[in-house]
Amino acid sequence: MSRSTKLPVTALCGFLGSGKTTLLRRWRQEDALRDAALIVHDLSEFGLDAELLSNDNVAPEVGRLVDRVAALHGVHAREQLHSSVGRALEEIATLTPPPPHVLCESTGVARPWPLISALNQDDRFVLRHFIVIVDALNLHRDFADGQVFTGEATLPDDAALHRAAEVFAEQLTFASAIILTKIDTLPRRVVEAQVRTLQRLQPSVTVGLSAQAGLLLPQLDRSPPPDFDKLQGHAERLGLTRVAATADELDAIVFRDPRPFHPQRLYDACQQQLRTGLYRIKGFLWLASRPEDVLLWQQSGSQIDLEIKGIWRVEAARNLYGKLSAREAELLTEQLETAHPVFGDRRNELTLIGLPDARDAFAAALRGALCTEAEVEAWQRGRSFSDPWPKRVRTID
Question: Which residues, 6 or more positions from 80, have their beta carbon under 8 angstroms from its beta carbon?
């Protein structure tokens, strides 16, 4: 089978919070990739990224291809990565109509060689790009615009930053293309300096620039594909052919609780308790001050994004705006029969990824930010809560 007849695979790697999911969500809006298949390699136990990338935000079924999305989270992202990717490729090969492309998003703590090896196991597919996504703001703030990796600057005595630098450097070593994201957060001269540094680190690799997920996959068409044999030799020289699929010591826990967050205490916890060793938080939450809104929380470093994903079913079933038919409202009410008697389907479900001490400390801070029993009773009576979170809504097409 020639390279031209094989199904192309594009893998996106990059440290936690660099913007991989945002790029893929944007790419899937394009006609050329609307029917693409996805493999989502996610450390989280509940597969949030696979849900966000499915066409209808369908809850993923772990280890299965559903709605052209293979959700490989939990053990499928770690111990079973090679075999799980193999099964996903087998299922993708039978899709009708066949997908024009396979897009793979890796967890931010992925070690690149196990993923590259897994994606190369089926000769019906060819790795077209192994893209490393780099967050320009984090590169500036934590790694001296990349000069940490050239030896022109040194890191502070911070174990969390040193661990992140190790993971990032290993990912960068295997890149066939680099996309520098969030460039709109920095002055142009800083971004230009970052590009020069990245080009010194990887002279033969294309560096693309992206603001608001504005760089599209076809813009990398002139970038040459990875040379698998060359990358394998590189992995053998570095002793990486038998490493685990994800970086040591970096793992995830899931925080779950149906009670609302007190908005002020949650804000204070973020201001006071976020440490460098807590690299990423992502998931859904709700605030006592905003009981309608399904809020998607995405945090990396000191950046926190809140996105309104819709309204909770328990609120929709009230049909306060008269947008539902009587039958639709009845169906929603039936779906809520097994839901929480007070909170309905509202819930907090957050994945925390990082080093154990920082991760566990912030989980404790989250527990302290939940509404107490007395506050829940006050909420039920219609009490208002101090809410310092931004209220301005920005719409992104």
Answer: none
Q: Are residues 48 and 182 part of one domain? A: yes
Would you say 269 and 370 are in contact if contact means Cβ atoms under 8 Å apart?
Answer: no
CA distance 225 to 239: 23
- Tell me the CATH number at 54: 3.40.50.300
Looking at the DSSP bridge assignments, the partners of residue 132 are: 13, 178
Per-residue confidence (pLDDT) for residue 249, from 0 to 100 = 82
Q: If you count DSSP H runs as helices and E runs as strands, how many of each does the chain have, helices first? A: 14, 13
Helices (H), the chain: 20-27, 48-53, 81-92, 112-119, 136-143, 147-150, 159-173, 188-201, 228-237, 263-273, 313-316, 326-335, 356-369, 373-380
The strand pairing partners of 278, in sequence order, are: 354
With beta carbons less than 8 A apart as the criterion, state whether 11 and 116 touch.
Answer: yes
User: For 75-116, what is each residue's pLDDT tens digit?
Assistant: 888 889 999 999 999 999 999 999 999 999 998 889 999 999
Angle at 35 between CA 81 and CA 10, to 5 degrees: 45
Whole-model pTM over 0.90: no
Tokens of 63: 């280890």
Residue 390 lies in a domain: no
Give the total residue count for the chain. Answer: 397
Given the structure tokens 């995830």, which residue do they identify?
252
Our measurement of the distance from residue 41's CA atom to the centroid of its chain's CA atoms, rounded to an integer in Å, reads: 9
Q: Structural domain of residue 173, as residue ranges? A: 3-237
